[in-house]
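Re: calcium ion structure - here you go.
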Amino acid sequence: MNNKYKILVIEDEANILRFVTALLQANNYFVIAAETAEKGLLMFTSHHPDLVVLDLGLPDRDGTLLLQDIRKTSPVPVMVLSARSEESDKVEALDMGANDYVTKPFGSQEFAARVRSILRSNRHSAEEGKLPGGKFTSGEMTIDYDARKFYIYDTEIKLTQTEFNIIALLSEHFGKVMTYSAISKEIWGYFDSGSTKKLQVNMANIRKKLSLKPGENKFISNELGVGYRMH
Ligand code: CA
């Protein structure tokens, strides 16, 4: 069977590595593993995995540095595993191009769902969703980039310029968590102490226009303390 997705897991904690490996194999993925950053990079280069699951706290090198090296040569999706104490590293990793993260300890269902979604959205974001004529569509959403209009089914949702820019930006990174800082820099050109608040206010208005209830994660989910993701 060579049509399985190949997943490289880089994790030094034996228990977690065993857990993740067994889980991915049970979900019919082909798993290769490394316990150090050095071995991980070697395996990445020689095996060309479809997804990298990367622990940030590795014994020989910071996982974010390994991510930097991977990003120099490859857009492969990367899912970061982080401990609570590595909260700021997680944000840094997302800004460096990680696609998603899970915080340890995590449940098997959640983890398997994230892996499925990351592989799916990576496949989709390349072609699907983008329509000819500068449009994007996913499920009930349609974005007309040229006309700067946003629709749910056929109903136009009236957005301000900034709100539209945020929606358009998230759609260009469909399925990926974008940090507050990454969004702010794209939308306003900078990130400072007031940026997150400003972004949250805009996002609250967007959610209101989409008639989303508090906590409802349809279309856009709020990754608490980290950023936003369109899905
Ligand atoms: Ca570790």
